Amino acid sequence: MENDAAKADVVFDSTADVDRTLLRENLKLTFEQRAQKHLRALQMVEELRRAGKKLRQKSDGR
Amino acid sequence: MAVDLAQIIPPLVRSKVDFILIGGMAAILHGSARVTFDVDLVYSRTHENIERLGAALAPHGPYLRDAPPNLPFSWDAKTISDGLNFTLTTNLGDLDLFGEVAGGETYQDLLTHSVEIEAFGVRFRCVDLPTLIRIKEAAARPKDREAVAELRVLLEESEKKQI
User: Fold this and answer.
1) Residues within 8 A of B (CB atoms), A 1-60 only
2) Nearest-angstrom CA–CA distance, B27 and B117
3) I want to staple B44 with a disulfide (CB 3.0 to 4.6 A). Which of B107, B120, B159, B160 is the partner?
4) B152: which chain A residues are within 8 Å (Cβ-Cβ)?
5) pLDDT class for A3, splitting at 50, 70, 90?
6) What is the predicted pLDDT for the residue at B106?
């Protein structure tokens, strides 16, 4: 019972931190537009990862 | 490699594979703003569907993700029948296939908790938002805690939108 109460508190606190404006914007999009938006974000993350890897290799002298 | 739903879903639908989209990509279609790196599908474990799944993915070079190269792994109906859940890399991106999800639910169990989605020129099934939350909670992975919070907010916002 105590654990359930603690879990509920954690969930409550977490939802308070969620940025609702982003979600409301997403809900205005079609399914395909949501997937395309995600793909663009994913490509950006992967580009940043590649850049980070290059930078680490450069600083390691490789 | 950035995984693209538009590349993975249509070949499976056209091969008549019975599956339900779950996980992070299902969350994206429900409106999530988080980034996910793979596609998670629950597939039907019938003999016919396993045959179709094997044939549909074979041209895309499925291989066990993070496994050493050159293992004697062949992607076919026997391999799928002998296993249950597969963490794969393919030339379409990373793909996780589940015969069962956390909590032991199967394709058949989730069918009534899924919605039909029309996108990428095809129709396919995606787990509904309350069930997606339940699956993520059952998995109880620390990384899902924030995702569950976001999904709960999405559920609230979607319900408000419908009123």
Assistant:
1) 10-11, 14-15, 17-20, 22-24, 26-27, 29-32, 34-36, 38-39, 41-43, 45-46
2) 13
3) B107
4) 11, 15
5) low
6) 97
Q: Crossing angle of helices A2-16/B144-162, nearest 10°?
A: 70
Hey, which bits of B14-139 come out as E strands? 19-22, 39-43, 63-64, 86-90, 93-98, 114-119, 122-127
Selecting from B2, B119, B150 the residue whose C-beta is nearest the C-beta of A32 gives B119
- Provide the sign of the torsion angle of the four alpha carbons A27, A31, A33, A34, taken in this order: positive
pTM value? 0.89
Token pair for B78: 């026997």
Provide mean pLDDT across the span B23-51. Answer: 96
Q: CA-CA distances (angstroms) from residue B127 to B14, B50, B134, B157?
A: 20, 20, 11, 18
Closest CA in chain A for residue B120: A32
A·B CB contacts under 8 A: 74
Locate the domains of chain B by residue range. 5-162
Domain B5-162 has CATH 3.30.460: yes
